[in-house]
Request: fold
Amino acid sequence: MPDYTLKIRRYDPESGDAAYWQDFTVDLAPERSVLDGILRARDQEDGSLSIRCSCQAAICGSCGVRINGKSALACNTKLSDAAERAQRGGINNEATSNGAIVVEPMGNMPVLKDLIVDMDAVHWKKIQRVVPWLLPEGEPPEREYIVDAEAMIDVTQSMACIQCGACVSACLSMEVDPEFIGPAALAKAYRFVGDPRDAHHEDRLRDLAEDPHGIYDCTHCFACIEVCPKDVAPMSQIMRLRRRATGDYAIKDSNNGYGHEKAFVDIVERWGTLHEAQLLPRSFGDGSLVKGQTRPAAVKQLIDSAPAALRGLARGKVSPRKVLIHPKLPDQKEVRRIYEEIEGRDERIELNLYIVGEEGEGGADDKEPVQGESGAES
Reply:
């Protein structure tokens, strides 16, 4: 069996010493997991090495760490795969000196000891923020709530979350804004927004839209989608929350999420390409060209943005000509035709790729799409 080197970040707050790195060499089969390697190192070399783990089957989500710079479950990562990535350049595309597998505690959460982070301080606190339970209308039934199976398709993906915190660890928005509600909590929020038994969909959406650290604080970096071990795709759930807030309830929030989306869509419909000089003022004005921009709140935001606009003019990124004149695509009428066809439908249709898969055994045509609001929008 080959030897693998684990380069583990150690930290003991009771010692008063700064964090440091320690190498461990383990002799295990390539198909064994990184968690197996850590437990072997603790067993044979240093019993003080700490990691949280339980099921060892990628179900409990306890053993979340960063392996070669990427958030993952230690029990769900093979030693051979981790070693290959380390040699290829796992951290900042730089290979480790001896091909060591670098293991660190998860990011965006305080470290309690070695590879154990304080989930209560960040992850669970944010989960509680979104009211993670059903709020039905009226008195509960004598027995259980009866829901059609088709009605639950919408939330199957968000229900698959095992609360491992890998997406929280990888979230770049949380690095910049620790108050951001975060991908895991917002995916949990969609689980109830999409549940037909909940009677407070609009209240939940309005709360998350008005929060400056809510659904519009996500920057679409896709990091949470890349690291999720259960394909929950938290960023996709955030996008669905936005679509419900803007498309279904027309919530005109103070964070200009509604205005920005409407402005973007209307500009592309009119010109075919993004008219950036119009995007900012229209976003502040609920998407409209003149009427919304004259509102007191919009005027104030436009004035506050004046220095950035002046810098754009000074550097040539924006010119008076570009502000006033924007060319249309040659076949702009075809773009408008697509808009009219989609907007003419009675309902929004999305394909739940989490249920049907992207393609069947014999090709994509082998499976019938399941309709719901969970997947790729068509």
